[in-house]
Amino acid sequence: MAIQKSTPAVDGVHAFKLPDVGEGLIEAELLTWYVKPGDEVKDGQMICEIETAKAVVELPCPYSGTVKELFAAEGETVEVGTVIITVDDGTGGSGGGTVEADTGAETEEREKPLVGYGEKAASTQRRPRRRPAVTAPTPAAPAPRPAPAPTTPEPAAPAAPVRSEGRPLAKPPVRKLAKDLGIDLATVSPTGKDGIITRDDVHAAVEAVRTPEAAPAPETPVETDRSAREQRIPIKGVRKHTAAAMVNSAFTAPHVTEFLQVDVTRTMKAVARLRERPDFADVKVSPLLLVAKALLMAIRRHPGINASWDEENQEIVVKNYVNLGIAAATERGLVVPNIKDAESQTLPELAASLKRLTETARAGKTGPADMSGGTITITNVGVFGVDAGTPIINPGEAAILAFGQIRDMPWVHKGELKIRKVTTLSLSFDHRLVDGELGSKVLRDIGTALEDPELTALAWG
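Predicted structure:
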């Protein structure tokens, strides 16, 4: 991934801003730093790992030199365009000049950003900040409480949390400490120079929270502390993006879901035979492979299912290519990478693409490009032991197929009751552009292809 060098150096110090590595993303979570202040880096060297709304990616450094300072802590969410690291290329004087992080024609002086702030316009002095007094109040600013606080940084009595204006100032280690201790920095009284929150301030805030609980508790508690019985998980990254996309799809596209039970006994026999063939020796042959092939054959017979709704131009856009999405559950949430031009691949090629796609997704290395441009999706709920569901269509697509678990079930076969391999298919489609007839024909053809895959391949080839 190429990073544009858009920030000029001041005294040989380059400021590297968080770039937009996806399609219009506005923020990312910094997962891991690979470097620290004082390390030597080269142009193109990977310096950190971030999680965007779509994927986990590594960022290369666009400069060579010595790492001067890191401006974001691991686990912190940073806005695109915010400086995250500075690199000294050794060509400046003392190297102590202010880093100009603007890319436009503005020449006004900028102050070096603190953690997570990005650049702030400034004159020769910092903008005054309102903060709780920790020493005797001066005549120019009345104390926020009736009595002045002691002159020592550690207050004699816990003060009520005070939320400062703007985002609190703190360095990365202090932010991480506050996060680990469950302290909101906006409620911490800063004692550092220029209103910066220190480690002692965070520990003082912890003590302030604990002090009221020092009073004797009743022998029989009325209510148990919920924090000990609940787990709170921040909504961010891939999970945040998925949630927003699914809500948007559910309330924009009128969903219709149809179900079909299918005897896939012959499909399972075909899977076993394909595994013995030499051209499938290096790939995984699973029922999902033949479901994907069946869907591709149905799309060829009914192209209208592989389409999208263009609200702005009031048009239905039928795609002459199939970027087949495969929903994958990962530790970071649901991702839907897609196989580009899947309709043009042979069965061995499709098997190799499925293997590569799933392995990359499970490793958490799926890139934004792999998840953009999908035209239709398959979600395999059967791997979780589920028979069927009503999947939500991915935004920009017309349909999604759910493939349920394959079970031994009593089935009438050739006029006799036998035990057969049976699965349930669920097709959700956007009723604005796919009517009941088209949706039913597509689902029927997929079922027919799975009931007799070999004959169907010869007939529909």
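Summary: Residues 94-144, 155-164 have pLDDT under 50 and may be disordered.
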